[in-house]
Description:
two-stranded antiparallel ribbon, elongated, alpha/beta
Amino acid sequence: MVKKYGDLYLQARRALLPTEGENAAAAARELLAFASGKSVAAVLADANLYASEQIEADLNGYVNRMLAHEPLPYILGQWDFYGISLEVTPDVLIPRDDTMAVTDLALEVLRTGHPSPRVLDLCCGSGCIGLAIAHQLPDAHVTLADISRPALAVAKRNIKRLKLMNRVTAIGLDAKKPAPSFVGTLDALVCNPPYVTAEEMTQLEPSVRDYEPALALDGGADGLDFYRSISANWGSALRKSGWLVYEIGKGQEQDVAAILRQQGFSQIIQQMDGNGIVRVVAGQK
């Protein structure tokens, strides 16, 4: 029997409530919109209209995937970050609000520097940081780089999705190896590297452990492997007074700041995310 959109929404919200809590309502709206091909606003406006049995079946399938801990962005195939809509797949990390603090600080230092900055987003994943910078700074030239070919494929599709092909490129690079000369001279290197410790990798929530790429999470025994390698090997790619801007894990700020100082960086900045956790450490060459 066909049901109204409003009833389908309530049904989905009830099913998601035990696992999603206060996020159940928003998730139910997003899934119903996705199942019906409508916008969230249209789904709300059409609450008293009847939906097809196919829409109900699709919605139930999406709800069951969420109940199996699959993250909502992977079901939808896209996620919004810093005012842009990005394709996301299980080949890349889901862009999170935490990372907005990295983008904020990168934009702050770039706006006071060269008028046409050159930026590298290393360990780029979906390209969210670099693409947000390019979107905010019309004169910036950005390179997205990752060792994962599947991740680079997603990043390249996001470049096209945002129509930034004239200013953004994507290439394969190993963050743990010295910076190749063809990278050129950068005004900023931004990076959200793998920083989960070996112990933390064994304690991840199922939605992360079972769905997000371990390659983008595992930072070695103490979570600091990539900070050591990048700080040592990539400073040569920065112009004098250029910035290295890192996202970090909770409680890593002192260690990462010390690594930057050991490699000759100064003007160390630590910045908190929206939850009051230090999420960014940056140093100037």
